[in-house]
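Before the break, one more example. Copy the sequence into your notebook; we will annotate it together after we see the structure.
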Amino acid sequence: MVLSDKTIKDLIKKGEIFIDPFVLDNLQPSSLDCRIGNHFLVVDDHKVNLLDFSTPIQYREIVSKEFIIPPKCFVLATTIEYIKLPSYITAFVEGRSSIGRMGLFIQNAGWIDPGFEGNITLELFNANSVPIKIMEGLRIGQFVFCQLDSPVENVYRGKYLKQRSTTGSKLYLDKEIANI
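Here is what the structure looks like once it is written out:
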């Protein structure tokens, strides 16, 4: 079940869902807007000519209050908000439709599992034929929270737990990849 604004606000007030910083004006009828931070990662195409699942990716790190995404370019970014979920709530990020209508596709890098805590890494893709400028603090997407039918037996304890900024792929750490 998707949570309403009232339930989201109540769970944040009780400390069940932790959002820092929490901005009441960003609360929507059934979601909470999230904002873009100032930390970005782009594959360093001067050092990388092929992405391989079993090898760490070399990224260029950019810290800036604004970032121009070139046409047909993929960028990792982070939310300003740090989130912590209890064992009975899951969440995902949806891009804002107004931004999607400009050709900027937004997705979080994975489902936000119960027990996860950290800043959310976002995947941004400029599908347009012109650059798109984004600025730190822009409401770029929205957290949609869902209540599970029961608390999970095993909360998230994965490799992205407690990430504090944009985090690149750690797929190379997966056991099945390491054994190929």
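The helical segments are 5-14, 97-100, 175-178. The two ends are 39 Å apart (CA to CA). Try to locate both features in your own notes.
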